[in-house]
Structures are given as structure tokens and as C-alpha cells.
Amino acid sequence: MIIEKLNWDTEFFGIKVGRIILAETDNFDPVSCEQQVKEDEFELVYIISLKKILNIENKEQLKLNLMDVQITMSKKFNPNEYSNIPYEFRTELSETELQECYRIAEQTATVSRFYKEPLIGPEKTKELYRKWIDNALDQSFSDGLFVERTKNTIVGVHIIKTNNTNKLGLFTLTGVDENIKRMGLGSKLWNQSFGYWSNTCELECINSPFSLQNMESFNFHLKMGFNKLEEIKYIYHYSNKL
Fold it and tell me: What is the pLDDT averaged over residues 20-44?
């Protein structure tokens, strides 16, 4: 069994992090996995099953926890439907705007699997989500971000990435101020990205991953026209330190 070392995660979280991707769960041997983790001195390993939930006895004894079920849904993109939608696409923010975006990112971090992981915890997860804002602004991972305002204060953030080669758009993070949810801000943010893509590139499809633990998010995807299931990931964390 080969465990892939995740260099970025290892450096950022300050622990040795690896990943195993299982295409076929029937071939997963938890005892062999445990031995390999210890031999390679990993402290945390993400085990991602692409087919189904793992059926393993004594998962607690093996320090193996199901942390998330991640769904990716898609919608076909027709640029003619959104070409007249205005958008505020940003790769620069004032210091005040940056702090407002950080605040929303930190609120959004509470739903992350990393937030619940004892080896990482809330503060490091909040730092990770702030890093997503930074990466959007310097365009190192994402195109940039969109914002929504109330009374001149940013209350919604939406980050996207464009794969021009495959004519694919990807949502990487959407966050809305927890004090004013259910006011249509999510729809406005997503429609901004539709308007942006309609006027800047030729897309055929948009993918959006989200946690199945958030049923509101599932229903929102359906409302926004995401009607095709692309992928299901069962994400486990294996701890070799606690």
C-alpha cells in the first residue's frame, strides 16, 4: 500500500500528512494500512473512498474516523442566460475589505472536517480558510473572488477557479456572514460568477463540491440548477498520534 505524502498539508499543518485514494474498497486492508502509516511515520492520513463507505470492524480501535462525505454536483453552462448579470470580480482588497473577508472565511471554517480534527483544530483551520482568501487574491490557486455587501460592509465571499482547457468552472469556497443567512446572498454570489464566466471565457460545465452533512447546501445546489451527481467521496482520517 502506497501512502502519498502531501507536502503542502505537511508544511502548513506542521505534522506529516499523507493520503490514500481507494478506487475499490474491497482491497483495503486496515491492518496493513496501520503498519504502513507507522513505518512511514505519518501522523495523519486522509483515506478517501471513491466507491462506498468502508465496512470495517473496530474503526475506533484503528483510530479511523469518517470525517466527511463530499458530494460534487455539476450543471451545464449556457453563457447566454447570464451575460447581462453584473459582477464585482476582485483580485485586490483594501485592508478593511480583507479583514471582512477573513471574518467570513473563519465563520465558514467551522463546517470543515479539519475543524473537527484534533491534530489540526479550530485555530489552524481558520488560518487555512484565511489562506484561501490570500490565494484567491494572488491568483496562486484561484482566479479571484466575488463579494456581496450590505451597508458598505462585505457580507458574502465567493471564490472560483477556471479550467479553460476543459471548459470547466469550479467553485472552491462560498461564505456568507452567519448573521444574515437566508437572504439570497448565496444566489447573488453564484450569479456573479455566472456573469463573469459568460463574459470572459467559454465554459461548458460548472462543478461544485460540498459536504453532504449540510443538507441546506444540497438543496441550494438543486435550486441553482446543479442536477448531475459527478462524484461522492467518503473521507476518513487516520491518526497515528493520538
Answer: 86
